[in-house]
Specification:
- The complex is a heterodimer of chains A (110) and B (115).
- By secondary structure, chain A is mostly beta strands.
- Chain A contains no helices and eleven strands.
- In chain A, strands 2, 4, 5, 9, 10 and 11 form a six-stranded mixed beta sheet that branches. A five-stranded antiparallel beta sheet of chain A has the order 1-3-8-7-6, with no helix packed on it.
- The termini of chain A are far apart.
- In chain B, 0% of the residues lie in helices and 55% in strands.
- Chain B has no helices and eleven strands.
- In chain B, strand 4 (32-38) and strand 5 (44-51) form a beta hairpin.
- Classes of the chains: A mainly beta (110), B mainly beta (115).
């Protein structure tokens, strides 16, 4: 069974601070996805990383995929209250199956 | 764009009753759909893979007789929680891939509360 370890599980910071969320696995995934979920809603895809060493930027969010395609990170610069939510990483397995990490609950205080 | 809908968005039922949740893909066909369960402040746990035209595939530890899945058409999968109990109270989410796992759309979820 492929497992994804996500850390930290909880993060509470002040507006304007930077933060990094990590997603690690002992297995190789063909792709890794990051989602953001707000309470009472389904997850919304932020980005998919496929190539080892890949870096993608989405405004203040920077996503990295490790060279060995086993780990990934999400870095948010100058966090804003609107960034508050549950951030989930998910690895793609066979037959379209996704394995989710435990999630990082981010709270950005004004 | 591609969207996945779920109905109902929330349901409250008495212990012992059965509840059906629908998952529909809008504007695209999905031969495969996935059902997840999510407890408060936790991640999504895959329950089963719904396959159009064949039986669903359940993850280890998920009772197939309790969580009945029917993939009635290329745009509809249903999850029926049979003889629901308070411990079944959770947020149920479905997803459907648009041809690839990295293009997967999630429904808005269904909040089930069993009294």
């Amino acid at each position: 069974t492929q497992l994804l370890e996500q850390s930290p599980q909880f993060l509470s910071i002040q507006e304007g601070e930077n933060l990094t969320v990590y997603c690690n696995s002992s297995s190789v995934f063909s792709s890794l996805q990051w989602y953001r979920q707000e309470p009472g809603e389904g997850p919304v895809l932020l980005v998919t990383v496929v190539t080892g060493g890949e870096v993608k930027k989405l405004k203040r969010l920077t996503f990295q995929f490790g060279d060995a395609r086993k780990d990934s990170s999400l870095h948010i610069t100058a966090a804003q209250p609107g960034d508050t939510g549950l951030y989930l990483c998910a690895g793609e397995g066979s037959n379209y199956k996704l394995t989710f990490g435990k999630g990082t609950l981010l709270t950005v205080n004004p | 764009g591609a969207v996945v809908s779920q109905h109902p968005s929330w349901v409250i039922c008495k212990s012992g009753t059965s509840v059906k949740i629908e998952c529909r893909s809008l504007d695209f066909q999905a031969t495969t759909m996935f059902w997840y369960r999510q407890f408060p402040k936790q991640s999504l746990m895959l329950m089963a893979t719904s396959n159009e035209g064949s039986k669903a595939t359940y993850e280890q530890g998920v009772e197939k007789d309790k969580f009945l899945i029917n993939h009635a058409s290329l745009t509809l999968s249903t999850l029926t929680v049979t003889s629901a109990h308070p411990e079944d109270s959770s947020f149920y989410i479905c997803s459907a891939p648009l041809g690839r796992a990295d293009t997967q759309y999630f429904g808005p979820g269904t909040r089930l509360t069993v009294l």
